[in-house]
Amino acid sequence: MRKPFVAGNWKMNKTIAEARSLVSEMTPILGGITEVEKVLCPPFMAIFPVGALLQGTDIGLGAQNMYWEAKGAFTGEVAPGMVAEFCMYIIVGHSERRTYFSETDETVNKKTAAALSAKLIPIVCVGETLGEYESGRTAEVVSRQIRVGLKDLDPEFAAQCVVAYEPVWAIGTGRASTSENANAVIRDFIRKPLSEMYGEQTGQSVRVLYGGSVTAANAAEFFGQPEIDGALVGGASLKVDEFVAIVQAAAKRA
Ligand code: PGA
To answer: Would 166 disulfide with which of 48, 126, 127, 179, CB 3.0-4.6 Å?
Structure first.
């Protein structure tokens, strides 16, 4: 059985004071929802204070990005081992990183391998752009992102990856994918290549999330699909009621 998983990607939002106040409101309610693996991914500056507030709860902490090298002259970057001092999770290859910061399937692969070596759980994001979607290239793009982004991982650890299917056209647009479409993409272009690469058991045990305009109103519909194990939530993770309701919807899947 795959445990439902909901992560909040705060992106570049919240000062330390704002982060503290959001987390203080969320933790008492979220902590009670034990059926779901819950993760908050604040910006780097807020990781330490948020981590302090999550101490003693079952809510996990994640970062939104890191570099793959262990240390050295890489101004502005953060190493896997540094993230692992505070976090258990790391978002890798979010479409905003691919679009604005030139990340590629190859760099996603290096980061994913480095994350696993540092004992971090990577949340690897894949998904086609609007142009790719409209020209019918979803299958080709998503399966390539999986085959290259997750290649040559230690087979023992590959199953620890969490994958987020986030069609780029659905992120922050209010235009979510249909749940049937997301379910089919996950089944055919994420689990199938993963099974071919790492065996059926890994393909079936990796948690796969949907992301892109998930809200309290549509979450249950996504979680009703057999291949969708949870959500990577952007905008709605900044609102206590919305995020709590999404986690509660995921608990019903358990
Ligand atoms: P959104 O973002 O929920 O605001 O669409 C999702 C994401 O970027 O992970």
So the answer is: 127
Q: Per the confidence metrics, is the pTM higher than 0.70?
A: yes
> What's the pLDDT tens digit per position in 207-246?
999 999 999 999 999 999 999 999 999 999 999 999 999 9
Distance CA 139, CA 192 (A): 11
Nearest to 88 by CA among 38, 134, 45: 38
The answer to whether the beta carbons of residues 230 and 15 sit under 8 Å apart is no
> Which residue's CA lies nearest to atom 7 of ligand 1?
234
The confidence score (pLDDT) of residue 43 equals 98
Closest residue by Cα to atom 3, ligand 1, is 234
Best probe residue, ligand 1, of 65, 126, 232, 237 (max atoms within 8 Å of C-beta)? 232
The answer to whether residue 94 is catalytic is yes
pLDDT grade for 253, boundaries at 50, 70 and 90: confident
CB 189 within 8 A of CB 144: no
Output the CA torsion 183→187→189→195 (10° steps): 150
- Mean per-residue pLDDT, 152-164: 96
Q: Please compute the mean of the pLDDT values over residues 175-203 and round it to a whole number.
A: 97
How far apart, in whole angstroms, are the C-alpha atoms of residue 139 and residue 20?
41
Identify the structural domains of the chain with CATH numbers, from first to last.
5-251 (3.20.20.70)
Contacts of 69 (CB under 8 A, 6+ apart): 77, 79, 114
